[in-house]
Amino acid sequence: METLTLPNLSSSGHVSEFFDQIKEKSDRMMNYFLVTFFVAGLVLAPFYGTWQVAIGVGGMSLLAYYSAKWALPDSSLYQYVLSAVLGVFMAQYIYQMHGLFEMHFIAFIASAILITYQNWKLQIPLTIVVVVHHATFAYLQYSGYDKVFFTQLDYMSLQTFIIHVVLAATIFFICGLWAYNIKKYSELHIEQSYEIGKLAEEKVQKELLKSLNESLEQRVLDRTAELETVNKELEGFNYSVSHDLRAPLRVIQGYGKMLMKTAASKLDADEIGYIKDMVANAKHMGSLVDDLLDFSRMGRTQLVKASVNMEEMVTQVVEEVKAAESNSPAEIKVSGLQKINCDPVLIKQVWVNLISNAVKYSRKKEHPQIEIGSTGINGSQVFFIRDNGAGFDMQYSDKLFAVFQRLHKVAEYEGTGVGLALVHRIITKHGGKIWAEAKLNEGATFYFTLS
To answer: What one-character-per-residue DSSP string does 29-78 give?
Structure first.
């Protein structure tokens, strides 16, 4: 199933992206305002012949703003320069119109324009320029300096001046407050939108996962039904193999033995050899069928674990193997085996296969010896069976537990090539491991663990 994850984004990232867009849009809008202010100065110039002021002051103001913006593209400092420039344009218009009082409203227009950046601090440079301009020019005009052009009034009292400055500062404060509130509202709105979007996406993810789970559950049910059908077919196949295939093998073995008894005197040595080979191969075929049936059933067999006295079990298996291999002189020693929790039926199959193999592959030795015991490795109990028989080349050890893989010729050592594969499957089903160490013609040791 494909893993589903939410994008690694945060609300702070969205807020930063939003204000970057606000900054870009505001900068574009300011380009139009600044050009308009510069052109307005040119329009006012003919009234009182103030072309030099319109071009000089207006041009220097634009130069100051765009120079700051070019020099500090990643800083917001140019915005504070813009605020001061807008205040300078107000002072320029007042001068151009020889103190026309209505030109003071240009400062209020500039204050409102700056709200678009949503930064209340931009009101500070404008306020400073306005206060300094009013205080300086008022002082100069009423001190007798000519052509200062602060106001067309003959005189302004200190009280009137203070009221004028306070009202202007109040307007700037209100515009700054609007900018602050708009920014906070924008941040809150973005965070809420992000959370709502995140919840909606999580809901979609959950619904998708639910749909996938339902689909997977249905597929599991369908697959289980298919496996049950296959298992039934396998059971039928096993039954057919167990009865239909064994029956003719028994017939072949039976007729072969009858021929050996009733017609031995009428047959020559070659014919008797043929019959013996036929009976032996029929027996081998029967053993192969039995092993294959056991191997195929193993995948469907459920473990039934119990506490098993391993030494008693192995001793019993040794007696059974000795009875079946009555002509084997092998000396078998069993010691150090402890109780363990396992499936006794399946583990007995393991010991039968391993002990039978040890006896079979050591029978050609003059003094065959087999040792069965257990040892501790990394805190785990490891069972082993060691013989001094034919052994094998370790470069072929990867084939040891595969089905139908044999490391010795069938003519030398009979077998079906299924026994060790069955042992491996049983040990694996118990959650254990099995491995072997050997040297050619010097014997082999098989180890296994059970969990």
So the answer is: HHHHHHHHHHHHHHHHHHHHT-HHHHHHHHHHHHHHHHHHHHH-TTSSHH
